[in-house]
């Protein structure tokens, strides 16, 4: 039985080309009643995808008071572990303890090549990084030999121990999250993917464990006044072209997504329709997670659209007409 439900706004990835839009969206998400605001990371993308999520979250911290600020996800193996620990600590301080640090591996070969990181080492680096980040948060000297760190210290410390989440779809990634993390984020909330993740996570983490959070991203298009569905679909379609080009020929989503529908935008939208349809669809996702004590539903409603006002109106509309039916 779910004892705690949080609802996030995301994933914002800066595709308007102006990262200051993220600041406006974080503020709008807080005003609309969302519990968290999510950003994510890619490099060298043609649509202006955010390359530095923690920098943007620091800016969001200055215009918000309550909403959690989350990365979904930082591509952890591409970052120097000490610098990542320091940046995370500062963002948590600047936000007065509101950072939720999601970490993942990524999938784009060009990013690993650009940073000179051997992708064969990425799983081991991520696993070592979780322990290093926890040690860094104490403010005491620590070693992380697997990451090349010896007798290092992070000051100032974060405002509190930063929740560490892991992403990923493969069984190994899910098992890692269940063993090491405070939560797991499913970035594509299709029923089969969510169910597969639940089965694997439940083998290493008790769903009733109140220290673990099940996070699921659900892509949502609201076809109602104030929803801007046509803008949303057009923006999503433009962005998706770039991602599909990178993923072509790869078994992304651990082979759980149908590659034959890669070009079908509706295949990437889990919930759509008028207010009643959206409420019903999101309730169905929550019902599938009912066994988990803590659930964090991340509703992706911001896409690669040039008109920020349309997106801000959509966020306010969902806050007014959808969120009250989910609490």
Automatic annotation (TrEMBL):
Top-rank lineage group of the source organism: Bacteria
Q: Which InterPro entries match?
A: Bact_Lucif_Oxidored, Luciferase-like_dom, Luciferase-like_sf
- Origin organism is Actinomycetospora succinea
Domain Luciferase-like positions: 11-220
- Protein name (record): Alkanesulfonate monooxygenase SsuD/methylene tetrahydromethanopterin reductase-like flavin-dependent oxidoreductase (Luciferase family)
Q: Mind listing the UniProt keywords for this protein, alphabetically?
A: Monooxygenase, Oxidoreductase
GO molecular function annotation? monooxygenase activity; oxidoreductase activity, acting on paired donors, with incorporation or reduction of molecular oxygen
What does the entry list under GO cellular component? cytosol
What Gene3D superfamilies is this protein classified in?
Luciferase-like domain
């Amino acid at each position: 039985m779910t004892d705690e439900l949080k609802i996030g706004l995301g994933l914002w990835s800066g595709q308007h080309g102006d990262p200051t839009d993220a600041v406006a969206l974080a503020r709008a998400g807080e005003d609309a009643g969302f519990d968290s605001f999510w950003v994510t990371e890619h490099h060298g993308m043609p649509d202006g995808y955010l390359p530095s999520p923690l920098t943007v979250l620091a800016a969001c911290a200055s215009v918000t008071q309550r909403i959690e600020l989350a990365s979904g996800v930082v591509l952890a193996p591409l970052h120097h572990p000490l610098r990542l620990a320091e940046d995370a600590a500062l963002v948590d301080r600047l936000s007065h303890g509101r950072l939720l640090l999601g970490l993942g591996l990524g999938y784009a070969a060009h990013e690993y090549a650009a940073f000179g990181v051997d992708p064969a080492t990425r799983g081991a680096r991520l696993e070592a990084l979780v322990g290093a980040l926890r040690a860094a948060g104490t403010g005491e000297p620590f070693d992380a030999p697997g990451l090349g760190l010896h007798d290092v210290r992070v000051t100032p410390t974060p405002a509190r121990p930063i929740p560490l989440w892991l992403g990923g779809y493969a069984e190994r990634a899910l098992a890692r999250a269940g063993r090491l993390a405070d939560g797991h984020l499913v970035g594509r909330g299709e029923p089969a993917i969510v169910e597969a993740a639940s089965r694997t996570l439940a083998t290493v983490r008790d769903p009733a464990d109140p220290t673990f959070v099940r996070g699921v991203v659900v892509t949502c298009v609201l076809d109602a006044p104030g929803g801007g569905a046509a803008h949303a679909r057009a923006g999503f379609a433009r962005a998706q072209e770039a991602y599909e080009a990178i993923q072509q020929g790869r078994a992304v989503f651990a082979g759980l997504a149908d590659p034959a529908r890669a070009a079908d935008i509706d295949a990437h939208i889990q919930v759509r329709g008028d207010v009643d349809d959206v409420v019903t669809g999101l309730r169905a996702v929550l019902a599938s997670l009912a066994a988990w004590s803590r659930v964090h539903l991340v509703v992706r409603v911001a896409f690669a659209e040039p008109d920020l006002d349309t997106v801000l109106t959509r966020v306010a509309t969902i806050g007014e007409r959808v969120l009250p039916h989910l609490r």
